[in-house]
């Protein structure tokens, strides 16, 4: 547990940097492929956990759709959902990890995409999580 808290503390400040660098950002969450929150900024634990769980379903759905493309490997790279009131971004961020952002309607979509890519490139190896076996990390 101490290792996870230390890992999460190290991630939280990087997520804060993304949120403060892109006006209109509400929540930033890093999650594992199975929907477990790894780090967060801008929300309480319950909200971040709900977003992480929903993201696991979205990345699975996006992968299934991607598998229908010829010569595609079925891996999701980016999902963007525009809703009344805002945007949702989900980006692959390493082996078995994802970066999710919820932003208000006025967000600069280009800046958000660029900052998310920069964050993933800068700390991608820290975002990776080993596969889980029978509910436990490998």
From TrEMBL:
<feature type="transmembrane region" description="Helical">
    <location>
        <begin position="86"/>
        <end position="103"/>
    </location>
</feature>
<dbReference type="InterPro" id="IPR053141">
    <property type="entry name" value="Mycobact_SerProt_Inhib_Rv3364c"/>
</dbReference>
<protein>
    <submittedName>
        <fullName>Roadblock/LC7 domain-containing protein</fullName>
    </submittedName>
</protein>
<dbReference type="InterPro" id="IPR004942">
    <property type="entry name" value="Roadblock/LAMTOR2_dom"/>
</dbReference>
<keyword id="KW-1133">Transmembrane helix</keyword>
<keyword id="KW-0812">Transmembrane</keyword>
<feature type="domain" description="Roadblock/LAMTOR2">
    <location>
        <begin position="12"/>
        <end position="103"/>
    </location>
</feature>
<keyword id="KW-0472">Membrane</keyword>
<dbReference type="Pfam" id="PF03259">
    <property type="entry name" value="Robl_LC7"/>
</dbReference>
């Amino acid at each position: 547990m101490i290792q996870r808290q230390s890992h999460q503390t190290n991630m939280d400040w990087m997520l804060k940097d993304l949120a403060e660098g892109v006006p209109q950002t509400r929540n930033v969450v890093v999650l594992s492929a199975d929907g477990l929150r790894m780090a967060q900024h801008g929300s309480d634990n319950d909200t971040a956990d709900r977003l992480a769980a929903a993201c696991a379903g979205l990345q699975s759905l996006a992968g299934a759709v991607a598998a229908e493309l010829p010569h595609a490997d079925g891996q999701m790279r980016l999902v963007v959902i525009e809703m009344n009131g805002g945007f949702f971004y989900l980006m692959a961020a390493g082996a078995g990890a994802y970066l999710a952002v919820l932003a208000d309607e006025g967000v600069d979509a280009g800046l958000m995409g660029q900052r998310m890519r920069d964050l993933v490139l800068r700390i991608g190896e820290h975002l990776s999580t080993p596969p889980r076996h029978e509910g436990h990390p490998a």
